[in-house]
Fold:
Amino acid sequence: MEEESDTRKINNSFLREHNYATEADIISTVEFNSSGELLATGDKGGRVVVFQREQESKSQPQRRGEYNVYSTFQSHEPEFDYLKSLEIEEKINKIKWLPQQNAAYFLLSTNDKTVKLWKISERDKRPEGYNLKDDDGRIRDPSTITSLRVPVLQPMDLMVEATARRVFSNAHMYHINSISVNSDYQTYISTDDLRVNLWNLEITDRSFNIVDIKPANMEELTEVITSAEFHPQQCHTFAYSSSKGSIRLCDMREAALCDKHCKYFEEPEDPSTRSFFSEIISSISDVKFSHNGRYLMTRDYLTVKVWDLQMENKPLETYQVHDYLRGKLCSLYENDCIFDKFECVWNGSDSVIMTGSYNNFFRMFDRNTKRDVTLEASRENSKPRAILKPRKVCVGGKRRKDEISVDSLDFSKKILHTTWHPHENIIAVAATNNLYIFQDKVN
Amino acid sequence: MFPKGTKRKFSDPGEEPVSEEDQVPVTPSVAARTLTSAYSLQRQSLLDMSLIKLQLCHMLVEPNLCRSVLIANTVRQIQEEMTQDGTWQIMTQALAAAQCPADRLVATEVLCRQTDPAGQSPKPCSGAGLEEGYHAEEVVMEGDVETEVTMSTLSPVSPQLSSASYLAGPFGMGPCWEEEEEDGECEEDEEDDSEECASESEEGDRDHLSPDTRTGEQVFGTFEIKHPAPPPDPALEELFSDVDPSYYDLDTVLTGMQSAPKMGPYDLLESLSSHGPTALSSSSSCRSDLNELDHIMEIIVGS
Structure:
């Protein structure tokens, strides 16, 4: 017991003030829906919190639509796999919205093993005047009923309820790392370390395995799948990334099993920067198609790369996220930070890309002007409605006043999950257990 | 062997290009001596770190396969490099010579190296995994068969294995023993057993006596408590209480020193020349814990 508390002390020593209440509140995914009206967050405790944008009121035009809590529900519970004597975490790994087809909203949420389809609907009326039961729900004594009446719908306080409509389970032996809804809005893929499975949204008892990289002899396993996504327009095309820094584009029309890629994207290694960590830092943590479907963006440990789908041998653009960490790879390996999986995201027009870093920093790169900026998501440094000040990390030599040195960076404060509104310049950034929503300044 | 007062400086291997390494392919010992000491030290500590990462799997939740694969690949890369410049041979030979045979199980590889080579109490161990890998590189055998062979032929008098094996200790007990010990103590540094294991157990093909199943679980996540054993967690906590914090202490890493000194190639060479025990005192508490664990396991298994 003593040792346990010692360990905890040591671990805490490089966490500065930690303001999170419990680990269950750590946000593990954020996602805007396709209209940008809703923002969903998933956390380590298996909960989903959905925010809705306020309707902009004409009386207060300066006050742009803010996001308020719309619905909260427990999506996944911790489970115990008795066969393997292992716990299955309830942490929500990914949330993906389905396009809206009626008044209700639908989203897919997944933990390590199970995907669930949730329906979020509003109820603002309820029937009153039942014959067989009271308004409270108590059964009426039939002998007291002397006349019949027709129940009437009465208005009530708005209630938002979430119901699980489908549960897609028992299809993954390994941990699910991503889900992606097809542009046909009928199917979706779920991806674990070694396999990609195709599901029909209506059918929960079977899925089709379309990619399987599990070797016959597991001794030969040297590469895993890290992420997969459907093409935004072509319903037969999807891409998946690997831990060795490659991306494969597959066409489902070619064969039932898409083990043979139709395009293979990989940048040859630069021999001058080779080290024992080269492979680890080349592992791709996220892959995202651009909205226009012409480009692919990948995030590895130190860079973000934009690939042209027509050019496989090298990326179109490479952006350094935090190259000052290159000299610290050994320490980052030791404290496991080198395995952190950062996500990346496009803005609505595919002109700006964004990704997170340490010390609650996140970076934006303008692809047209080639300018980049580092911003910080923290309460101390930004008051509500204040403009974010650009931050800078000083690499060596003299540190200017507002700069922060590499050694002062807090590696426990990492921004892994970010999302960008589909049309406007509104971003949501998850910093441990805090959600930050930033908007463009209104002039 | 080295001039007195040579200061071992820690610098990130990431910064050092491989070409800096000095290689003289005359004899293994000569090659080792001419290696840049800083580079070799870093490489060794990286290897140690990786091995510990692989063995210290989370007991409750399945460990991250991607992370395990990346660490295993790193270990393989280091081993290949060390095999090429002959350092590996020295290390295994030194260990084989230094360690006395015993008929109790030997512990994790790292703990083994911390053992007083003069022949203190051995620890329960899962050397099979490690030896597996080296066999793969030296002998090129296939999965199942190989491990079976390894298990059955490991004994104090198996010279061919002991010279090649990193862990000189024999396995006096049957496989089921190791399974018990496995849960947490075992270190897995080779992908060979581990991946195969994961797949086997994942597919429900559980051969309880196969060492593959056992070792794979450690790295690639599918733990199975096959016997109604008490949860090993408390013992495990105690066991690794000495190893864990110091290893994950950034300060320690940055100074390049560990509280529990690692046996690098230079330590081995020193021990060879001195024929005496190396100064590995910090492992004594580990050892007593392991003895207790041994004892508990004996009772449970009823051997």
User: Anything to note?
Assistant: The longest strand of chain A covers residues 152-168. The two ends of chain A are 58 Å apart (CA to CA). Residues 1-20 of chain A have pLDDT under 50 and may be disordered.
